[in-house]
Amino acid sequence: MSVDAVVDQRTDVSIRAKLTFTAARLMLRPLLTHWPLTSVGMLPLSLIEVAAGLLPTPSGVRYEKVEFGGFTGEWVRPDTAPEDSDGIVLYFHGGAFVTCGVATHRHSVSRIAEACRLPVLSVGYRQLPTVRLAGSVEDCLTVYRSVLAEGFAPERIVLAGDSAGGCLAFATALAAAAEGLPRPAGIVALSPWLDFDCAAKLVHPNAERDAYAPVQRLPLLAKLLGADPDLDPSISPVNGNLAGLPPVLLIASECEMLRCDAELMTERLAAADVPVTLQIWAGQVHAFPVLGDLLPESTAAIQEVGTFVRGLTSTATGSADVAVLAG
């Protein structure tokens, strides 16, 4: 038995989105195509997180740092959250498992928290060159165990992330299921990397159309992560035991290289009888929702995330919000 996936095409493209796409194509793509994927090459990337930490924090939210032993997180609590709210979002940032962190994603996470009207725990998991993929997954699973131990009900917890963090949202849910932990309420993945076998992506037209993410770097990165698909295909979330996963929202750009992964995961989730909605947005860069207020499409996508999350975590308005999203 399988469910029918909801596939939603968004075709309007703003002028700001077109300008952002062109700028990324001209400046970011050449840089990322040739950036050395070595320990020395990864070292300067850590400065991105340091620099982001110097930026002013958004208004309308409160922040609280959390220590997890070896890595940190940050609670982002919006003023829009009801006092009696018991739902939360665990957010895993993107950055190809080599860069970014809590600070780089503070603005977008704050907007997600406001849209969901829930506290968000942004997770600064360890990444390359400190740990490989298994270490990043273990950190995220540690946080999920921690919030369960604190008394948060699993049916009020949504796992979310962008790019590498989208992979971790699925990997955490699958690892939790394998450990016998209760499943979360839902999963949100923005432009997720879900299949470490890059064969399909290398020959897909989007390998050339993507604004800035170079698909030819993925096989080496997968090996550095210890996620070589030739050695263990099950490491890729698309090959996991998907049956029993909670409802999923996937958002991807129409022309990004990781659209393949979002579409493949949508097919396999539907075949596993998991409710899934895939939104394909035209003319956007990879992981465009994290650009926050820069693009109208980013703001709109974050509102979609908010509707989806509220529909899962609010028993009073759940069915109505989900119906709005699907429509």
Q: How many β strands by DSSP?
A: 9
Query: Structural class, from secondary structure content?
Result: alpha/beta
Element order: H for helix, E for strand: EHHHEEEHEHEHEHHHEHEHH
Basic shape: globular
Span between N and C termini? Answer: 23 Å
* Helix count, DSSP H or I runs of 4 or more residues: 12
What do the pLDDT scores average to?
93
Helix content: 25-40%
Largest sheet: 9 strands, mixed
* Strands side by side in the biggest sheet: 1-9-8-7-6-4-5-3-2
Low-confidence residue ranges: 316-327
**What portion of residues belong to β-strands?**
15-25%
Walk me through this protein's architecture:
The protein has 327 residues and is of the alpha/beta class. Helix 4 (106-116) packs across helix 11 (296-313). The relative contact order is 0.16. It has a 9-stranded mixed sheet with strand order 1-9-8-7-6-4-5-3-2, with helices on both faces. It is built from 12 helices and 9 strands. The protein has helices spanning 15-34, 39-42, 46-52, 106-116, 133-149, 164-178, 199-203, 206-209, 218-224, 259-271, 296-313, 318-326; strands spanning 6-10, 61-67, 72-78, 88-92, 120-124, 157-162, 186-190, 248-253, 276-281. Strand 8 (248-253), helix 10 and strand 9 form a beta-alpha-beta unit.
